[in-house]
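Example complex used in Figure S2.
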Amino acid sequence: MSNIAEKLYTIRYKVDENSHLIIKDQDVCLHCETKECQFFCPAEVYQWHDEEKMTSVAFENCVECGTCRIGCPHYNIEWVYPKGGYGITYKFG
Amino acid sequence: MATERFDAIIVGGGPAGSAAAYTMAKAGLNVVLIERGEFPGAKNIFGGVLYRKQLEDIIPEFWKEAPLERRVVEQRMWLMGKDSVVTMGHRNEAFKEPANAWTGLRVKFDQWFASKAEQAGSLNIYETVVTDLLREGDRVVGVRTDREEGDLYANVVVVADGVNSLLGKQLGVHHEWQPDQVSLAVKEVIAMPKEKIMDRFNLEGDEGVTTEFIGQLGGMAGLGFMYTNQETISFGVGVMVSDLKRTKIRPYDLIENVKQHPMIRKMLQGGESKEYAAHLIPEGGFHAIPPLSGNGWVICGDAAQLVNFVHREGTNLAMTSGKYAADAIIEAHAKGDFSKDGLAGYDRRVRESFIHKDLKKYQGLHGLLNDIDPKLFDRLPAALNDAAYQMLLIDGLSKAEKQKAAIRGLREAAGGTANLVKLGIKGWRAING
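Predicted assembly (526 residues):
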């Protein structure tokens, strides 16, 4: 068994300082009943924090698949590609 | 960047983009191919099957130089029960010469294909994101990139930016895909000594085997795959995004769960996972295909939802659509007409080809899969496995009793005889309609 941290460790990343994923409105997350981005993202990018009342975005883990953009029930994620040359680089593909 | 004007700009260095760039460059057009990754293929994954026919039409005898893994001589289909499987398949020496398909890995393959375009004269630019389409009136006239002074102009832009196709959305030819129009594939490339792979899958030389499995995959309607490469196995699971949303099963937990199935575990044991990857697959089918061309633009490959998910064909449709787009642009170039009318040769070629015909054939399937209770994908293979087990188990019950029980089990799994018949008819219509 390998966990998600071990899986992501197999991918080479070149991390930009700015996130290419932006939560449009944290208030929408607060009222979101399912907060399902925490489940469907294959790279565990999104996490809801009860105390801070916010969704954190670990964009440095992102594998650029696009699931969150389509899956977010409120289309609350602004999704663009990382800058040219940044983000993931697969070895096998 | 130079402000020179190109005959065509190709956005995306995947199979569709490289096929278009190669075909146009070879015909003497002045083309630029823009890829956002460090190199073509850096961002790309697929299950792992490359078909001969469509690439051969672009580059004859490509197999003599392209980086391919194994020649597919056998296709297996596994219907999974919880701890069991009903297997089907076909192996044939005839698949060797000429080869029907190879397994492959995209990092190597896409680099090779893009380099062929470059050798033919395409100017390939990497590490560059196309952020906008430039327009004059109702015409696309170029692209804006994230490079400084990064505007480029051309008579036509080939949009081959993959399943997410942000440019397709900008064009307005498609809106956002719906969660039931795309599936998420999670994949691992698992290293294993060559001899072990060959022994385990009964292979000699460069023979390879593909295995697809459906059924009880952690409670979801999904399709799994396991393909033999030279020294690795491509293993993964694809599930509709709508199902992920519904079940709240984490994709990385799902792939781990599927690996624990006794059939899978024994095929993979001793292997070491070298890479994890995730990618969307367009599965909207025929009705999700957007308009394919307009004034100064064409759209190809995944960006245009050109995937036959029933037969897991994608890269071949991408290559063919890229080639057809290029052929049409070459004609438009000769006429000097890059309007929608001038580029209509692309739509016509696609319409007259296997792409349109195959996707049309399965047009009802997408709706059917949405109509069916998702639990059926669990229950039917389970009932089938149970029936096989009971029929083969010698326990003193008569064969007639066993047969009756097996039929009852299948009927119950489908939710009654009427449902079973309805499902059969609907399924038949969906693939033959």
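The two ends of chain A are 21 Å apart (CA to CA). The helical segments of chain A are 4-8, 26-31, 37-40, 67-71.
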